[in-house]
Automatic annotation (TrEMBL):
The keyword DNA-binding applies. Pfam families: HTH_17. Residues 2-50 form the Helix-turn-helix domain. It comes from the Bacteria. It comes from Ectobacillus ponti. GO terms for molecular function: DNA binding. This is Excisionase family DNA-binding protein. The lineage of its organism: Bacteria, Bacillati, Bacillota, Bacilli, Bacillales. The keyword DNA-binding applies. Keywords: DNA-binding.
Length: 76
């Protein structure tokens, strides 16, 4: 499925100007049909899946309690 720059910006929750800039930098693949750029939405699937995977991993790590340091001695 192909999206316009505006639709891609909404899909990725980014400003349209940023999407246009990434197209010019060739970081986002797009086709120009003579009037507008069309972007294949499927190219973001892997990126979004990896982002979600890393978000869950970070949440798990933040939930782990900090282990006590065995080198700390109680001075009391």
């Amino acid at each position: 499925m192909y999206l316009t720059i505006k639709e891609t910006a909404e899909y990725l929750k980014m400003p349209e100007s940023e999407i246009a800039s990434l197209i010019r930098q060739r970081k986002i693949r797009a086709v120009h049909d003579g009037e507008q750029y069309l972007i294949n939405r499927d190219q973001f699937t892997t990126h979004l899946e990896q982002t979600e995977k890393y978000r869950r991993l970070i949440e798990e790590l933040l939930q782990e309690p900090v282990p006590e340091d065995i080198d700390i001695k109680d001075e009391d």
